[in-house]
Amino acid sequence: MSILNTVTPDKATGEVAEIYDQIRQAWGHVPAAIQVFSANPFLLRHQWEYYGSIMQHPTLSLPLTACIRMLVSQAGSCDYCIDMNAGMLINAAGWTPEEVAATRADFNDGPLSAPEKLLLGLVLKATRDARGVSAADLAAARGAGWSDRDILDAVNHGARMVAGDIVISGFKVERDF
Fold it and tell me: What pLDDT, in 10s, does the model give residues 114-139?
């Protein structure tokens, strides 16, 4: 599953078991990418609470957040995350495999709305060349209707994905889907 010693759902006790139960209730299973955080229950809880908040974000849609994760992970070569989020776009957002492939090739060719594409482009710019982000980029996002909270939340989501890719790839988390 991983080169890091982690707690599997069948061996979980205490706080880890409680968090795994919440994850199972919400998602039906505990993905290996979440189990890797079980080595530190504080980080596991933090990660789970963060996922809960981003999945219920008032303005960042599931397709947008899945695209952020998929495309940031594509730049970081994290196959686990690319495939998991592509599957989420197909199975939860109703995208076709062709729409996912088009988005992976050029996000401007995907089915996101124009404002979502603009924000996604800003996130990708920030995660690939943070110093290249300008006041004009934020002004364009604001002009497309995004609040500063939305902009921060989207860029933070991309930045957290960079960290997640490092953890998942670095500890050799195997696909479980």
Answer: 999 999 999 999 999 999 999 999 99
Token pair of 143, please?
């002009």
Q: Are 64 and 116 in contact (CB under 8 A)?
A: yes
Chain centre distance of CA 1: 20
Closest by Cα among 53, 39, 48 to 21? 48
Tokens of 152: 């921060």
Q: Are 33 and 85 in contact (CB under 8 A)?
A: no
DSSP code string of 50-74: HHHHHHT-SSS-HHHHHHHHHHHHH
Q: Which residue's entry shows tokens 């050029």? A: 106
For the record, the structure tokens of 5 come out as: 């010693």
Report which DSSP code applies to 38: G
pTM over 0.85: yes
The contacts of residue 63 (CB under 8 Å, 6+ apart) are 89, 93, 95, 111, 112, 116
DSSP string, 137-168: HHHHHHHTT--HHHHHHHHHHHHHHHHHHHHH
Distance from C-alpha of 76 to C-alpha of 161, rounded to nearest angstrom: 9
